[in-house]
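Bug #77: duplicate submission created two jobs. Keeping one. Sequence:
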Amino acid sequence: MQIELYIGDEKKIFVAPFVPVSAKRKFLEIEARAEKREEAPSKQQQLEEDDEIMAILSDIVFKKQFTLKQLYDGASKEYVDQKLAEAVFGIKPKIKKEESEGNNQGE
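Kept job's structure:
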């Protein structure tokens, strides 16, 4: 798995040779804890949970090759969410076909 982040003005690519099962386990632990709550989480709790979830990428999958702040500052929310889904659930982003592909008949 890889992730591209802008650190400063430079685009950097980080690589993880594999995604450990502990990434999914950590995500499920966070979700299970959230389900046990009787009331809506406070803003502080939401921030802490977001940090824990995003740390799955920075700390578990990519083994601290970049910081949590660099993850937050270096990519869009949509991109980070895609990478998280890829790490936790194995959902790879769909690759758009180039217009030049196909047989010019819409197939």
